[in-house]
Design a protein that fits this description.
The complex is a heterodimer. By secondary structure, chain A is an all-alpha fold. In chain A, 73% of the residues lie in helices and 0% in strands. Classes of the chains: A mainly alpha, B alpha+beta. Chains A and B meet through helix 8 and helix 9 of A and strand 6 and helix 2 of B.
């Protein structure tokens, strides 16, 4: 009985916090999606399905698909870069590992917005990258490095890379590298032993890395807003427009519901995948 | 036959530690060859050099006359049994065993046939679908053996494969390994710090210490005629007495040990008067009796001693006696214990004696000496 009370006291505050500031607002968003908007930016009376139906327009389908595509690309590039990085840090001599991890984390000390503006000036038509590419003949004067999907993916990969490296490193650090030797001993080339022994060995870290990149990427708003153009808008931008420009909260809510469902679906899929593998393992155990 | 796996002047240094120091070894085809030595003697480094996980700083390695020093591990016709087995945890027993063949892109029906044969050999047909974590230590070991042997390596490298097993299982796996070696007829290079394992399995043993090979020979050669005091102390128990050669008499010589009459000893190393030696006598070669034995003093050495402790071990009894200040271990096999006129007890006066051929002299040159013989004489017999 006393234990129960202790548990309740310990978990109570965080439970209350999540209930008030996460679950209730999320439910509010769900409800708002079924309310009509009034012309002054408020909520009208009664209930309606019109907003939900409006999401069926092909226009939204395009934005939704683009959001998915950009997020997938971001995830793929981040993982491709994070795998060798995490591997290298885990195999580095122990006294160097802390330094290497610090180097990965240090960019966080600068504001996210400032780092994006730094990219803007780098990619700017008068910026360093553009000038360099023109000098080596890889870009003409008309090539635009900013305000397109490429720029969005580039900056998003830059933003999310550390989040992908850390769980992969955490899993790789626990990996028994003698298994790689065993694979090499049995005839595997370096790449074969990487694919057939190392990747399955860090499976859970890999899944965590995919999750922590893909889910926030789906909800991106700032990056496409600042370095993207009209052709690279994502769902996050649309939601912001509905709130700030159209002042149509129900419409914004309906889009947010779609986004939430899109985020929850892969989450549930991965939880189920892991449960099949090891019963009772909770999501981000080694993230 | 000729050499099969050959190390030629191999050296390897890790930072300040000279792990392997100019080692030359020739291992014959089909041989069960052991590298035996204390931890840190360089035996595992030798194995890793043979497998291709480490590059030697100096020297070359040859397999069937071909220089394989530069070959990566996957190109060498050698396979390793790791101390931890290193089974792939995400694969079943079957997939683990099939790994080598599947990497080599062999046809599926051939892989299936070979894996089935291996499973049969290790008697684990009914465990093929299990993951390594569901297996016992002995089973993991067998899977590791099968996973290596399925590739039909020219040499099988074994890195203390029994160290992780408990004593009973170790003895059983020892017999199994021996049977597998007889069955497949490939060369085994076996690394161990356990002299019992090495003695019972090997055709030949190389005893290593501090990166060097101290002696290469059959188990009997190494036990009965160790070349250095390190080998004598590391393999089995032995008594060390500090002495000096005083005179030569044919094949025998007289050795003076402080406090003793001159001892007669077979002079197999051709030592000269004045040479400082350690006289080494295995405890089981020394006899003990209550009365002075009537023996030819040219062939036998007999000394009065006082029994300081008696440890009854069932099949044998271990006596610790002191003779003229020297502590001597005596091991006595019981043939007819209860029929002995009167057992020798603690604090009894007794005689110890041994045949001149059963002691061997070791020069005081090997680098292990200070460590082993510098101990007070009381401790020497007890270091093992």
């Amino acid at each position: 009985m006393k234990r129960r009370l202790q548990e309740a006291l310990l978990t109570g505050p965080s439970f209350f916090w999540l209930l008030t500031f996460f679950l209730v607002p999320t439910l509010l968003v769900f409800f708002l999606a079924f309310r009509p908007a009034d012309p002054y930016g408020g909520i009208g009376a009664g209930w309606t399905l019109e907003t939900i139906k409006a999401l069926g327009r092909s226009y939204y389908l395009a934005v939704g698909l683009r959001t998915l595509w950009v997020s997938l690309l971001t995830t793929a590039f981040s993982i491709l870069l994070a795998l060798p990085a995490g591997y290298a840090v885990a195999r580095a001599p122990e006294r160097h590992r802390k330094t290497l991890l610090m180097l990965i984390i240090v960019p966080f000390w600068t504001s996210f917005l400032i780092r994006i503006f730094a990219w803007r000036s780098l990619l700017h038509p008068e910026g360093l990258v553009k000038k360099f590419l023109m000098a080596v003949g890889l870009a003409g004067p008309q090539t635009s490095l900013l305000y397109n999907t490429g720029a969005v993916v580039l900056v998003m990969v830059y933003t999310f890379l550390p989040f992908a490296i850390l769980p992969i490193y955490a899993a790789a650090e626990k990996f028994d590298f003698r298994l790689i030797e065993a694979a090499r001993d049995l005839g595997a080339r370096p790449l074969q032993s990487f694919l057939r022994v190392f990747l399955p060995g860090i499976r859970s870290g890999l899944l965590s890395a995919i999750l922590v990149v893909f889910i926030p990427a789906l909800g991106s708003y700032v990056v496409p807003d600042l370095v993207g153009g009209p052709g690279s808008e994502m769902l996050g931008n649309k939601i912001a427009q509905r709130v700030f420009v159209d002042r149509n909260l129900p419409h914004a809510s309906a889009l947010a519901v779609v986004l939430i469902l899109a985020v929850v679906a892969p989450l549930i899929a991965i939880v189920l995948l892991r449960r099949k593998e090891k019963p009772g393992v909770i999501l981000s155990e080694d993230a | 036959m000729g050499e099969h796996l050959e190390f030629r002047g191999v050296s390897k240094r890790f930072g300040a530690i000279q792990a392997v120091d100019d080692v030359a070894l020739e291992i014959r085809k089909g041989e069960f060859f052991s590298l035996l030595g204390p931890s840190g003697c360089g035996k595992t480094t030798m194995l890793r050099i043979a497998a291709g996980f480490e590059q030697p700083d100096k020297g070359r390695i040859f397999l069937d006359g071909q220089d394989i020093t530069e070959l990566p591990p996957n190109k060498r016709r050698v396979n390793t049994i790791f101390q931890s087995y290193a089974l792939f945890p995400h694969m079943t027993v079957r997939d683990n065993i099939a790994f080598g063949l599947s990497i080599a892109k062999r046809p599926p029906d051939e892989i299936e046939r070979e894996v089935a044969a291996m499973l049969k050999m290790i008697q684990m047909e009914d465990q093929a679908g299990k993951k390594p974590e569901q297996l016992s230590g002995g089973q993991k070991q067998r899977v590791a053996v099968a996973r290596a042997l399925i590739n039909r390596p020219a040499v099988l490298l074994l890195d203390e494969p029994l160290a992780a097993l408990d004593l009973k299982l170790r003895q059983r796996m020892l017999i199994e390994l021996d049977m597998i070696h007889d069955e497949v007829g490939i060369t085994f290079l076996y690394v161990t710090h356990d002299q019992g394992e090495a003695m019972s399995l090997s055709d030949r043993i190389a005893v290593m210490d501090q990166g060097r090979v101290e002696q290469i020979g059959t188990p009997a050669e190494i036990y009965e005629s160790p070349r250095t005091s390190f080998v004598a102390a590391f393999i089995g128990d032995t008594n060390f007495l500090e002495g000096e050669v005083t005179s030569i008499d044919g094949d025998y010589c007289a050795v003076r040990v402080a406090g003793f009459p001159d001892l007669s000893c077979f002079n197999d190393k051709g030592l000269q008067p004045g040479n400082l030696v350690y006289l080494s006598i295995r405890p089981e070669k020394i006899q003990i009796s209550r009365d002075k034995p009537l023996l030819d003093s040219r062939q036998y050495n007999a000394l009065p001693a006082r029994v300081e402790d008696v440890i009854y071990l069932g099949s044998t009894t271990k006596y610790g006696v002191r003779a003229e200040g020297h502590r001597v271990q005596v091991m006595r096999q019981h043939f007819r214990f209860f029929l002995d006129e009167k057992p020798i007890r603690w604090k009894d006066d007794a005689w110890i004696w041994w045949h001149s051929d059963d002691a061997f002299m070791l020069e005081r040159y090997s680098r292990g000496d200070e460590k082993l013989v510098g101990l007070p004489p009381e401790k020497v017999g007890e270091t093992q």
